[in-house]
From TrEMBL:
Pfam families (UniProt xref): Hydrolase (PF00702)
Protein family (similarity comment): Belongs to the HAD-like hydrolase superfamily. CbbY/CbbZ/Gph/YieH family.
Protein origin, superkingdom: Bacteria
Protein name: HAD superfamily hydrolase (TIGR01509 family)
Taxonomic classification: Bacteria, Pseudomonadati, Pseudomonadota, Alphaproteobacteria, Hyphomicrobiales
Keyword tRNA processing included in the entry's annotation: no
Keyword hit for Magnesium: yes
Gene Ontology MF terms: hydrolase activity; metal ion binding
Swiss-Prot/TrEMBL cofactor(s): Mg(2+)
Length: 222
């Protein structure tokens, strides 16, 4: 296999959190009078984007401030949901354990949210200490910075890295980094056209289940 490093997004790939987090974002925006960002818009435009970039975009587009407490209010509600409702994606742990590759997480989530999500779902030991948050780089996804940071941490050339991502922003970031990318469509937030969107933006292939990942890696290796 030509790949040495398997880089995993977290939300919507390892853990089924994307819908939970975007729902809280949309609810908090609506509560503050930002009516142009319902859940479907937040999912379509901001899944996989860091909270900082998401907030900056909304404020730029509306010309209004979200409020200094927006991030804290969202984080508090999301934290409670993760503790009580979060589940890993089926078979993620078993498949990861079977892959003969180095593995890491590269996510737009904050370090605290990443730690909580991976701990609650029992996946942290698969990756620790190689868990990288976008706070480590200047530009989050869709910029390639975070994936290049992860590759550098392992001393692995980009062409020997394969990324698994569920978001358009993540797919664009992986492609910009010069890496192959598997689009994942098994999260609760993924609609019937999700695979098509990921392929349109550069995914090398898509899978709906973790059990399909080894086969996808083999196909990309040939």
């Amino acid at each position: 296999m030509p790949f040495s490093l398997f880089i995993c997004d977290c939300d919507g790939v390892l853990v089924d959190s994307e819908l939970l987090a975007c729902r809280i974002d949309a609810e908090e925006l609506a509560r503050r009078g930002f009516a142009d960002y319902p859940l479907e818009t937040v999912l379509r435009r901001f899944a996989g984007v860091s909270q900082t970039d998401f907030m900056a975009t909304v404020e730029r587009e509306t010309g209004r401030a979200l409020g200094e407490d927006f991030a804290e209010a969202v984080a508090s509600r999301v934290k409670e949901l993760l503790r009580t409702e979060l589940q890993p994606l089926p078979d993620a742990g078993a498949v990861l354990a079977s892959l003969p590759l180095s593995k890491c997480v590269a996510s737009s989530s904050t370090p605290a949210k990443l730690d909580l999500a991976l701990t609650v779902t029992g996946l942290k030991d698969q990756f620790a200490p190689h868990i990288f948050s976008s706070v480590l780089v200047e530009h989050g996804k869709p910029a390639p910075d975070l994936f290049l940071y992860a590759a550098k941490a392992f001393g692995t050339p980009a062409e020997r890295c394969c990324v698994i991502e569920d978001s358009v922003a993540g797919v664009k970031a992986a492609r910009a980094a010069g890496m192959e990318v598997i689009g994942f469509t098994g999260g609760a937030h993924c609609g019937p056209s999700h695979a098509e969107r990921l392929l349109e933006h550069g995914a090398s292939t898509t899978v709906q289940r973790w059990t399909d990942v080894p086969g996808a890696l083999e196909r990309l290796a040939n």
